[in-house]
Amino acid sequence: MTKESLAQVPDLSVDLCKITLKNPVIAASGTCGFGLELMHFYHPSVLGGFSTKGLTLYPRPGNHGIRLHETRAGLMNSIGLQNPGTEVFVKEILPKIRGLTNCLIANVGGSDFDDYIEAVEMVSAADVDMIELNISCPNVKCGGMAFGIRTQDAAAIVKAVRPACKKPLMVKLSPNAHDLVEVALAVQDEGADCLSLVNTFSALAIDVYTRKPVFNNVTAGLSGPAIKPIALRMTRDVAKAVQIPVVGMGGIETGIDAIEFIMAGATAVQVGTAGMVQPDILPKIIDEMAQFMASQGISNLKEIQGII
């Protein structure tokens, strides 16, 4: 490669809460386990970052019954935050995965304030780079999404957790919120360092033969390409309103999709469902972003971030 061609290679690196990511593509929580699963397809170090499976203070077995259901343009899930608990994560899993990425994001949820606070305190004291506070999971019967629906509840949980969190705090927002921009501004005011959005949309699938809902919990979370235009609009709305970085997600399948989220104001993106359909797709998304930027004479993502 000549010096001239090297000079034309676009810079995909981004700064997220003073952490430099080599590119803006992050594996979304709950879609790649704890990262070791990706080793069958590619090394996670090629990614900008990795968000772990959702963690709670105590182990959770997850939901019973059907957990995944395909739709015409997406995927519904009702996993129920199945996980081994924060103590097992810190003592047994974290030492095995720490070297997989330069930005390890621990996704943490809970059922009540005390659980959230204790879980965040334990995980943020460990060797992770960032906490992603999940206040938006639609697949648990208590906690999770309940804190992300109403502005006052979202603000209260972030205010409670902030003193216990010694790492940058990313708050994952629900698209099912009564007023997403209002929620975003409220959690920013209570100390969120950045935001990730959107989580899955509350949705319903019916088995007409059994005449019952497909999922035991009746509703479940919808993700995939069907939600992308709405997620893109919500990302733009929030990015224009807040002064902290936004990580956009929702239906990203290609490098062009990711570029759209950057143009809408996102600093980085998370990819989830697409990686479940095609496990090696995240590196391809990164390559497609670089190819697009090179073809358009874009030297770095700052040139196009938030231009819409």
Tell me about this structure.
This protein has helices at residues 3-8, 86-97, 113-124, 146-149, 151-161, 180-189, 228-241, 255-263, 273-277, 281-295, and strands spanning 14-16, 19-21, 25-27, 49-51, 68-71, 74-77, 104-108, 130-134, 169-172, 194-197, 201-204, 206-207, 212-213, 219-223, 246-249, 268-271. By secondary structure, it is α/β, with parallel strands linked by helices. The protein has a single domain, classed as Aldolase class I (TIM Barrel), CATH 3.20.20. Helix 5 (151-161) runs parallel beside helix 6 (180-189) and helix 7 runs parallel beside helix 8.
Task: Name its key features.
eight-stranded parallel barrel; 10 helices; alpha/beta; 308 residues; 32% helix; single chain; TIM Barrel; globular
List segments where confidence is low: pLDDT < 50 over at least 5 consecutive residues: 1-7
Number of strands: 16
CATH architecture: Alpha-Beta Barrel
Fraction of residues in helix: 25-40%
Task: Specify the CATH class.
Answer: Alpha Beta
* CATH homologous superfamily identity: Aldolase class I
Number of helices: 10
Major sheet: arrangement of strands: 3-4-7-8-9-10-15-16
End-to-end distance: 35 Å
